[in-house]
Amino acid sequence: MSPWSWFLLPTLCLLPTSAAPQRGALASANCELKPQQSELNSFLWTIKRDPPSYFFGTIHVPYTRVWDFVPDNSKEAFQQSGVVYFELDLTNPYTISALARCQMLPPGENLQDVLPRDIYCRLKRHLEYVKLMMPSWMTADQRGKGLYADYLFNAIVGNWERKRPIWIMLMVNSLTEVVVKSRGVPVLDLYLAQEAERLRKQTGAMEKVEEQCHPLNGLNFSQVIFALNQTLLQQESLRAGRLQIPYTTEDLIKHYNCGDLSSVIFSHDSSQVPNFINATLPPQERVTAQEIDSYFRQELLYKRNERMGKRVKALLEEFPDKGFFFAFGAGHFMGNNTVLDVLRREGYEALPMNTVTF
Ligand SMILES: *[C@@H]1O[C@H](CO)[C@@H](O)[C@H](O)[C@H]1NC(C)=O
Ligand SMILES: *[C@@H]1O[C@H](CO)[C@@H](O)[C@H](O)[C@H]1NC(C)=O
Ligand SMILES: *[C@@H]1O[C@H](CO)[C@@H](O)[C@H](O)[C@H]1NC(C)=O
Ligand SMILES: *[C@@H]1O[C@H](CO)[C@@H](O)[C@H](O)[C@H]1NC(C)=O
């Protein structure tokens, strides 16, 4: 699912969060290599100090799909920490409106003037298809919560002609049956933010909206058109029945629930951009896909890791008596140039916690 969906549809985040975990989630995570929950890795790291502070890696999927698999040590670390920091303050209406503003084309411009005609017409056709399908995609549970297809469609798609093409690409990517069915349940990081508020913890945001949003707007025109074209092609194949529903979200959930700390799958969730690198692409297009991938890795992971790591250090030093819990996208802790690397470079000891060493 699109990681941005929590904010493409902010009002839904306010629905009651009491949804029971899906039945399937209560069964075992079905991890081939490490069948015991106690042998799984947790996405938890500790910074040695007194009181200790923690880093916790989240993913952007409905929390009901993963919460039962989050090990007890991570839940305890959250409970114990007095101060919880997120990438952004998702519960603040200002955050939501600033993100909405950041998606807009400059005043006076419309998507129709910006996009190649072929792409614009295919986009329009696709949105008409989604509008038609939406009622059949929704679940009885969603309808029971008072969610209506028209409302949902307008909340996600409304004002689309005024949005920048990169945001249209992310929107189209999130307009699938699987994603629509999961609307109304908060994603894991939003759930933690709501819990922190409910438990009256002090909360904060590591970044400004613009720091997340501007790098997305910085992709150049031909790259954006490529990304939008690929996204539309994929949706058109799905519509025509030529492509199986891609299991990206299911894969992500499985790796997370199995405690599989491999960086690749999480980097796309945390950089918030889908993977366009596809083995069947012609060579020139594969080059473009690689360029987009490294642009986002640099701008949405490495640069932000550096900035967030330095801000974490500043907080730890300014408030030595406080126990912090930093909940960021899991991809910020895996691969190269992670937030943890920044802190280690600054002299801190940041250790992974497995489920039995709490
Ligand atoms: C966009 O960026 C790519 C990679 O840096 C470059 O090859 C291409 O010429 C740029 N296109 C435009 C329209 O600026
Ligand atoms: C979209 O992608 C297809 C397949 O790669 C290509 O043939 C077509 O020219 C592209 N369209 C645009 C407008 O870039
Ligand atoms: C890979 O790219 C080709 C050509 O653009 C496209 O037809 C196909 O649907 C893509 N596959 C996936 C899984 O996106
Ligand atoms: C990390 O850096 C190494 C060395 O520069 C490189 O070979 C590797 O591909 C990088 N990994 C990722 C996930 O970018």
From TrEMBL:
- Protein family per UniProt: Belongs to the TIKI family.
Q: How is the cofactor bound?
A: Divalent metal cations. Mn(2+) or Co(2+).
Q: Which residues form the signal peptide?
A: 1-19
Q: Which GO terms describe its cellular component?
A: plasma membrane
Q: Identify the coding gene.
A: TRABD2A
Per UniProt, what is the membrane topology? Answer: Single-pass type I membrane protein
Q: Where found in the cell?
A: Cell membrane; Membrane
Enzyme Commission number(s) of this protein: 3.4.-.-
Domain of life, source organism = Eukaryota
In UniProt terms, what function does this protein have?
Metalloprotease that acts as a negative regulator of the Wnt signaling pathway by mediating the cleavage of the N-terminal residues of a subset of Wnt proteins. Following cleavage, Wnt proteins become oxidized and form large disulfide-bond oligomers, leading to their inactivation.
GO MF, one annotated term: metal ion binding
Protein's name in the database:
Metalloprotease TIKI
Cofactors required:
Mn(2+); Co(2+)
Source organism of the structure: Ursus maritimus (Polar bear)
Q: Which GO terms describe its biological process?
A: negative regulation of Wnt signaling pathway; proteolysis; Wnt signaling pathway
**InterPro entries found in the cross-reference section:** TIKI1/2-like (IPR040230), TraB/PrgY/GumN_fam (IPR002816)
A Pfam family that the UniProt record links to this protein: TraB_PrgY_gumN
Enzyme class of the recorded protein, top EC level: hydrolase
Could you list this entry's UniProt keywords, alphabetically sorted: Cell membrane, Glycoprotein, Hydrolase, Membrane, Metal-binding, Metalloprotease, Protease, Signal, Transmembrane, Transmembrane helix, Wnt signaling pathway
